[in-house]
Amino acid sequence: MSEEEWETSFHQEKSLLLMFNIALSNHLLGMKLLSLGLQEQEKEQEQQHQQLTSLLSMAQQSFHTAKTYYRLALLENCNTNVVYVLDKFTYPAMINNMSHGM
Fold first, then answer.
1. 3 lies in a domain?
2. Is residue 1 assigned to a domain?
3. pLDDT digit string, tens, across residues 12-32
């Protein structure tokens, strides 16, 4: 979204975009932490076990936060008389990403 589009958009559109971006950021963070956890799991040492547990816990929290924001974005947008569509991939992406959450 360009700066001009941002300035002329409705409050609901801005809220949806911000919630979606927060959710997506948490989703990507969760994926990164999960990836790091899997790398640590391959090392199989006692010290790495605590790191693995910590990484997986943080990944789970990130996925949970992402899912919460996806739901919030969908609910906020569906509770209005006008449904805002950022592009044709926004809602399928939200639903797809929610299905990956832990």
1. no
2. no
3. 778 888 888 888 888 888 888
Structural domain range at position 42: 11-100
17 three-state secondary structure: helix
Tens digit of pLDDT for each residue in 55-64?
888 888 888 8
What is d(CA 63, CA 26) in angstroms, rounded to the nearest whole number? 6
Distances (CA, A) of 64 to 20, 27, 38, 43, 69: 14, 9, 19, 27, 9
Residue 53 half-sphere exposure, CB side, CA atoms within 13 Å?
6
Position 31 in a domain:
yes
Q: What is the per-residue pLDDT for 43?
A: 67
Q: How many domains does the structure of the chain reveal?
A: 1
pLDDT (average), residues 77-102: 67
